[in-house]
Design brief:
Elements lengths: L3 H15 L4 E6 L21 E7 L2 E6 L3 E6 L5 E6 L8 E7 L3 E6 L6 E6 L24 H8 L6 H5 L10 H11 L12 H20 L40 E5 L2 E5 L6
The structure holds zinc ion.
The site of zinc ion (ZN) has 7 residues, from loops.
C-alpha cells in the first residue's frame, strides 16, 4: 500500500507536471472504484488552471483556480502516470485526465480500493471538506514528543497500532512503523501507555528521519507502487526489519521474529526491541 513517502513522491512529481496547466476533458472507463466516479460532464472541472497539487495524509489534493478540487486516494495498489495521450490504455486505467499540453494523467487501480472525490473549497488552499478526523502530519512541527506522549497515555493497545492510527498521526503505515520501532529499540508489542516521554522523543525524531530518507529515495516499492514516471522506489534497499522475519537482526544477529498486530504482520528483534 502506498504510504506517506510514496504519496509524497507522487504528489511532488504531479505538482511539477500539472501546476499551471488545465484539464481539457476527463474520461472514466468504469462506473465506480471504492465509490462511484462522477467526473464526466462536469464543466467546472475542465478549462480551469491547476493552481496547487498537495498532500494531506495519504490523499493527493489537486486544486483548480475556481476552487473545485480533486481528492485522490490510491487504495492498496493504485498508481498515477503522466503519459502521452496516444499511449495505449492499460487494463486497470480507470480514468484519463486530458491535459492542455497533450499529455494525459492516468489513474490506475487494479484492486479498486482507491477513490477520486471532488469538492468545492471554502477558500483557496483550504482543507477539503471530504477529509475528516485526520491526526497531525508526522513531518510537521505539530508532531512533537509531548503530543505523541499525551496521545499514547490514553491507549491500552500495542504501540505499533497507536502510531499507525491516523487519528493520532497520519501516514505512518506498516513499513515505516516497523522500521521506526526497530530503530527506536521499542517492541511493537509494548503497551502504548507504557512508553516514556524520553522514548517518545526518540520515536518522533526517528519517524521523521525514516520518512524523509524514504522520500529522498522515491519511496518503497514492495509489489505495486510505482513513481509517476513508472520507476520503482529505492527505499526498499534500506529496510532493516520490515519483511525480514527469520533473517538475522542487522544489529545483533538474533533471528527476527514476526507477530500479527491489527491484522498486519510486524517484524521485530526480540533482543534489541523491548
Ligand atoms: Zn537485534
Amino acid at each position: 500500500m502506498p504510504e506517506l513517502p510514496e504519496v509524497e513522491t507522487i504528489t511532488r512529481a504531479l505538482a511539477a507536471s500539472l501546476t499551471g496547466k488545465h484539464f481539457t476533458a476527463i474520461k472514466t472507463f468504469i462506473a465506480a472504484i471504492r465509490y462511484p466516479l462522477d467526473l464526466e460532464n462536469r464543466p467546472e472541472l475542465v478549462g480551469q488552471k491547476i493552481i496547487s497539487v498537495r498532500r494531506r495524509a495519504r490523499y493527493i489534493i489537486i486544486e483548480l483556480k475556481n476552487r473545485w478540487t480533486f481528492v485522490m486516494h490510491l487504495g492498496m495498489s493504485g498508481a498515477i502516470r503522466i503519459v502521452p495521450a496516444d499511449e495505449p490504455k492499460r487494463k486497470h486505467d480507470h480514468v484519463f485526465f486530458y491535459l492542455s499540453d497533450g499529455q494525459t494523467m492516468r489513474y490506475e487501480c487494479p484492486r479498486r480500493f482507491g477513490f477520486i472525490k471532488t469538492c468545492l473549497l471554502d477558500a483557496p488552499g483550504a482543507h477539503p471538506s471530504v477529509l475528516v478526523n485526520l491526526g497531525v502530519e508526522p513531518l510537521s512541527d505539530e508532531f512533537t514528543p509531548d503530543y505523541l506522549y499525551s496521545n499514547l497515555k490514553k491507549r491500552s493497545g500495542p504501540i505499533k497500532n497507536a502510531i499507525m492510527d491516523n487519528k493520532i498521526v497520519v501516514g505512518v503505515g506498516n513499513i515505516y512503523a516497523a522500521e521506526s520501532l526497530f530503530l527506536s529499540g521499542i517492541s511493537p508489542l509494548r503497551t502504548a501507555s507504557a512508553v516514556t516521554l524520553a522514548q517518545c522523543a526518540k520515536m518522533v525524531k526517528i519517524i521523521k528521519e525514516v520518512l524523509m530518507l524514504s522520500i529522498e529515495a522515491g519511496g518503497t516499492t514492495i509489489s505495486d507502487y510505482k513513481q509517476v514516471d513508472g520507476s520503482e522506489g529505492k527505499f526498499v534497499q534500506q529496510l532493516k526489519i520490515y519483511g525480514k522475519d527469520g533473517q538475522p537482526c542487522p544489529k545483533c544477529n538474533t533471528v527476527i521474529r514476526k507477530a500479527v498486530l491489527g491484522g498486519r504482520s510486524s517484524c521485530f528483534c526480540p533482543k534489541c526491541q523491548k
